[in-house]
């Protein structure tokens, strides 16, 4: 497992990958990818038990991650490549014609590391719940992880799945919310008014934890606390407090970069703020 200093270096490189991928494609979703980069880096390099060499799509005998907020594919692909699931050089094909790295993850392309296609928001929690239930029925002790967006929590299917998980005591799954309070049309509270989101999850029967999604000490403690709740009869969710566009000053804290690609000059400015630690593709 990587140290905190190593995690910081990896996450910086992941953010560089995100910026370069979206700029190269002239399309994509950098904002949420940047806000979730730290805690997903911690997940892949410090928490989750996984091995590209033994990966199978059925997920048996391994931890599983489902990206419910599928538009965050840039951070997902970077982490998979940096973890060894496919060549890092392939990141340069993001959203290009014929690529395996489509704008939203697909299983049709045979991309190693992707368990579930995701594009329509709200579906990933249902898929994760199904995988977690299968693991319980198979006596598979591994854990299922899934990432939701806070804007995605406006989707009705999220709450159907939330009820299902609580009713069936799916306590071998850890969900996360990228809690940046931004979505494509603006501030979450202005668009749909989700209100006290942690309290909503509690009312639906979940164990709810909160942590700073950009502080690796807190992130690792948050995952440890979540894992300690597994097997206690309730599903677990971590509210990861985050900053959309985190890491680049002109992107941070605004929904303006939810689904907008930087131009070449903006790309240079962004990269000047992010340390190259593992080598660009």
Summarize the structure.
By secondary structure, the protein is an alpha/beta fold. Helices cover 39% and strands 12% of the residues.
Strand count, sense and barrel status of the largest sheet are:
5 strands, parallel
Going by helix content, strand content and strand pairing, the class is alpha/beta
β-strand number: 7
Q: What is the chain-wise order of helices and strands?
A: HHHEHHEHEEEHHEHEH
Percent of residues in helices comes to 25-40%
Please give the alpha-carbon distance between the first and last residues.
23 Å
Averaged pLDDT, please?
A: 96
Number of helices: 10
How would you describe the shape? globular
Low-confidence stretches: none
Radius of gyration: 17 Å
Largest beta sheet: strand ordering: 1-2-3-7-6
Report on the architecture of this protein.
- The protein is α/β, with parallel strands linked by helices.
- The protein contains ten helices and seven strands.
- Strands 1-2-3-7-6 form a five-stranded parallel sheet, sandwiched between helices. The chain has a two-stranded antiparallel ribbon with strand order 4-5.
- β4 and β5 (186-187) form a beta hairpin.
- The two termini are 23 Å apart.
- The mean pLDDT is 96.
